[in-house]
Design a protein that fits this description.
The complex is a heterodimer of chains A (393) and B (254). With 393 residues, chain A is α/β, with parallel strands linked by helices. Helix content of chain A is 43%, strand content 18%. In chain A, helix 4 packs across helix 9, helix 9 packs across helix 11 and helix 14 packs across helix 15. Chain B has a single domain, classed as Alpha-Beta Barrel (TIM Barrel). Classes of the chains: A alpha/beta (393), B alpha/beta (254). The structure holds pyridoxal-5'-phosphate.
């Protein structure tokens, strides 16, 4: 079984590029060039240099001793929270800004949910001196205020998406509409492993540094490259794609994907796409998505803005369908408690998105000798107000 | 012969109107179609609303949201249209995004269109290449014309390809934009209209996006077989409802 993208842009039956003709020249230009550009020595050199000197890579792989004791297994945390800007998102934006420059683009647009991708995009635009416009749902602007301020300080223009549910889905719609209206000078930096081909594959390749590092870091620390499990939370699936990438075809490595159950799978307020979704088309790709029986995309819900998306990247739809990955869904309450637990046990305050991945330990039991690597995708600074309100701190 | 092809042979410039089905009120669909025909419109695009219309500006986004709230679905639309051919003769095209049709089942959807007397489909987010590989035979089986879009950025090679697999007309998007965002055509558009007119394509072209009044309609049809008005009409029915459509069509045609 192949879990990577095929030459037509599909992961099994998922993926493709279901785009209006207005976007065809842009997406086609990217499709024709992305592999060539990524392979250029000059690109590789600049990408790796920036990841090292600017982002601060490699990010540590940390053996979480007290958390391991609590769950009676061996838990390693891949510290993407220690990256510049506080999450894994910057790996992708560094890659894409270099891509945009090589394609001669001068104007950058992006969507954002939690604001992490928006900040990561605004950051690389400041770094390269490019114009930056970030679309963000009106609701998310309210619940992620510190990140909105960050983007503004970095020189980006933050535009409120006022349509639909006014969250990540709608911000993505607005970004795509902007791209339709600006087809020549603009590059769209998608923030997750979603969208039309080649985006899911391109984003995955830029995030693949995560599992590349896990391999040699584990080898250094425990003498073998492969853990027994890799775990990540899934919004669109970029931190997960990076965590899984070099393990997809290693059958001895179990893959666990953690989705947001919101108030509960059956509550009507959830974002657990693998359970509630059906095959369909969202933002240019065929994947699993939450929709009515008439094919209208439904509004997801999660306490975490970064997981509040009604679809999932096509790679993950394929991993779910083939059974290669085990999908777990975690409620708001479990996630919040897991975030607090990590803070108390390890001195690390995680992003609420990441807290979902950690809450999985409450429900899944591992053997004492199992090595379980969790992508600690982001830090909790941006979520402080949410934690304060929730725990009445 | 398909009604669209027959209409395209008429020796006149064609006015095509887009409206959102089930808007402003759920039961306005049939009245809208009948009144459009009565008032000299040549062809109608019936918008099947979608929750996330990527190629549309605020006007059609809003009408779509409202229509969905009103209860519009593929099933409801087909029910409303089931007797439409008893009263309406002009070509009818359903314009909608791919996901609702995909959920209905593309074959079932096309069959239903044929049963009712819908003549063609416009599906902005079903690209030519995927249509050609996976859905062409279904359209042919049910005698439906699929209409493709081209834009100022579409390469000559791709336009020739689109022309080769089209069998009705080519929908020329007037400029790089979503619907409803233009006001008037400048030199750039005129140059593009001329460039396409000079390609001598086998399919006639109908220009859409940014046509809102007599002036833009006349400008567009100077270079093309016809023109499509969407957002401007949707704005009209938002304000005036569907009973006084003549006040809108009169301003365009006279
Ligand atoms: C810290 C963090 N983790 C995870 C996610 C989810 O995105 P993805 O599934 O693309 O990794 C986000 C998105 O904003 C995030 O900020």
């Amino acid at each position: 079984m192949n879990y990577n993208v095929d030459e037509k842009g599909y992961y099994g039956e998922f993926g493709g590029a279901y785009i209006p003709e207005m976007l065809y020249p842009n997406v086609e230009e990217l499709r024709e060039n992305y592999l060539k550009v990524i392979a250029e020595p000059d690109f590789q050199k600049e990408f790796n240099q920036l990841l090292k000197d600017y982002v601060g890579r490699p990010s540590p792989l940390y053996f979480a001793k007290r958390l391991s004791e609590k769950y009676n297994t061996k838990i390693y945390l891949k510290r993407e929270d220690l990256n510049h800007t506080g999450a894994h998102k910057i790996n992708n934006t560094i890659g894409q800004i270099l891509m945009a420059q090589r394609l001669g683009k001068t104007r950058i647009i992006a969507e954002t949910g939690a604001g992490q991708h928006g900040v990561a995009t605004a950051t690389v635009c400041a770094l390269m001196g490019l114009e930056c416009i970030v679309y963000m749902g009106e609701i998310d602007i309210a619940r992620q205020a510190p990140n909105v301020a960050r983007m503004k300080m970095l020189g980006a223009k933050v535009v409120a998406a006022l349509s639909g549910s006014r969250t990540l889905k709608d911000a993505t719609n607005e970004a795509i509409r902007d791209w339709i209206n600006n087809p020549v000078d603009t590059h769209y930096i998608i923030g997750s492993a979603i969208g039309p081909h080649p985006y899911p594959d391109m984003v995955t390749r830029f995030q693949a540094i995560v599992s590349e590092e896990i391999k040699w870091q584990l080898k250094e620390q425990i003498g073998r490259e492969n853990p027994d499990y890799v775990v990540a939370c899934i919004g669109g699936g970029s931190n997960a794609a990076g965590t899984y990438y070099h393990y997809l075809h290693e059958p001895d490595v179990g893959i666990i994907a953690v989705e947001a159950a919101g108030l509960g799978i059956d509550s009507g307020e959830s974002a657990a796409t693998s359970v509630l979704g059906k095959e369909g088309i969202i933002h240019g790709c065929k994947t699993l998505l939450m929709q009515t029986k008439d094919g209208q995309i439904t509004e997801p819900y999660s306490i975490s803005a970064g997981l509040d998306y009604p679809g999932v990247g096509p790679m993950h739809a394929h991993l779910a369908k083939t059974g290669r990955a085990e999908f777990v869904s975690i409620t708001d309450d479990d996630a919040m408690n897991a975030g607090l637990e990590l803070s108390k046990l390890e001195g690390i305050i995680p992003a609420i998105e990441t807290s979902h991945a950690l809450a999985m330990f409450k429900y899944k039991t591992f053997k004492p000798d199992d090595v379980v690597v969790v992508n600690l995708s982001g830090r909790g600074d941006k979520d402080l107000q949410n934690y304060i309100d929730y725990f009445k701190i | 012969m398909n009604r669209i092809n027959k209409k395209l042979q008429e020796n006149k410039k064609l006015l095509s109107i887009y409206f959102t089905a089930g808007y402003p009120n759920i039961n306005d669909t049939v009245t809208t179609i009948q009144n459009l025909e009565k008032n000299g419109v040549d062809m109608i695009e019936i918008g099947l609303p979608f929750s996330d219309p990527l190629a549309d500006g605020p006007t059609i986004q809003d009408s779509s949201t409202k229509a969905i709230k009103n209860g519009m679905t593929s099933e409801v639309l087909f029910n409303q249209l089931k007797d439409i051919r008893k009263t309406v003769n002009i070509p009818l095209i359903i314009m909608g995004y791919f996901n609702p049709m995909f959920q209905y089942g593309m074959e079932a959807f096309c069959k239903k269109c044929q049963d009712i007397g819908v003549d063609g489909l416009i599906i902005p987010d079903l690209p030519v290449d995927i249509y050609n590989a996976e859905y062409k035979s279904i359209f042919e089986k049910y005698g439906l014309i699929n209409v493709f879009l081209i834009t100022p950025q579409t390469s000559e090679k791709r336009i020739r390809f689109i022309d080769s697999i089209s069998n009705g007309f080519i929908y020329m998007v007037s400029s790089a934009s979503t619907t409803g965002t233009q006001s008037g055509f400048g030199d750039q558009q005129t140059a593009y209209f001329k460039r396409i007119a000079n390609m001598n394509l086998k399919n006639p072209q109908i220009i859409g996006f940014g046509i809102s009044n007599h002036e833009t309609f006349t400008q567009a049809t100077q270079y093309a077989k016809g023109a499509i008005i969407g957002s401007a009409f949707v704005k009209h029915v938002t304000k005036h409802g569907v009973d006084t459509i003549n006040t809108f069509t009169n301003t365009i045609l006279n």
